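Q: I'm writing up a methods section and want to include an example of the input and output format. Could you take the sequence below and give the corresponding predicted structure tokens, formatted cleanly so I can copy it straight into the document?
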Amino acid sequence: MFKAEQFIKENVEHLKKTVKGKALIAFSGGVDSAVCAELVHKAIGNDLIAVHIDTGFMRKNESAQVKDLMKDLELNFKFIDASKQYFTKLKGVIDPEKKRKIIGNLFIELFEKVAKKEKIEYLVQGTIAPDWIESGDDLRDTIKSHHNVGGLPENMNLKLIEPLRDLYKDEVRILARALNMSVSERQPFPGPGLAIRIIGEATQERTEIVREACFIVEDEIEKASKNESMELPWQYFAVLLPVKSVGVHGDKRAYGDVIAIRAVQSIDAMTCMYSEIPNSVIDKISTRITNSLGEKINRVVYDVTHKPPGTVEWE
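A: Here is the clean output for your methods example:
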């Protein structure tokens, strides 16, 4: 049985002995990076600098919420708006593996600039077991390259520290609860963000569409969970497909895009079952998406695929 208090004590002591100098943590605001930051902060205090990069692919109001979280945790932090750089780098890129590696490489470039200025030697990441298992190696196929694994350049100048590397998501949540962290039950959000919830090119316009659709999916499902109409899924979001279909907007023909709703139940992210969302909730989601996004979206579908054969995210 996983013992959170023992893990915290042993890791903080190990980090005190291992990290000799300043460290930088890639802080997304999710449970993995937040727990990681808390452990390292306990070990080296303000010698840890938390860096949050707004890639332009964050969820609605997310970067502002992450700033507040870093303040609440009393972290020494920096905020970087790199959205223009990311949209430029991903222009014309369709292949999901290329997206992930471009995103990961640019993360490291930006982190290394901060590290050089602040004379930092260590890069801390909230990598967990499913990240490196799915990214593949000499013995495993690559399911998908996680940006914090497959996106790391071979000539990286920073020494890598990954305190949660051998843990699964359920164990990280246990740690977060033991540390009394507000993010303990926060649903997972991929490091590459909304860029991989857009099948095809992740333009700024398409990102705004999926951002609003994700917000609606989250809002309606969370409201339904609060009034006990359904169980809150482990993860739930929208995906923008590279498919157009004919619809009707007002009394005119519309040729719009398609949004897929994805909601799953899981424990460790290695396998999952699709969540059964009541028809009344799907109806509210569909109506809000098609009304708020006008002629851009005219069809909403619901994904009922388990993992395997699918993955949680579509890319």
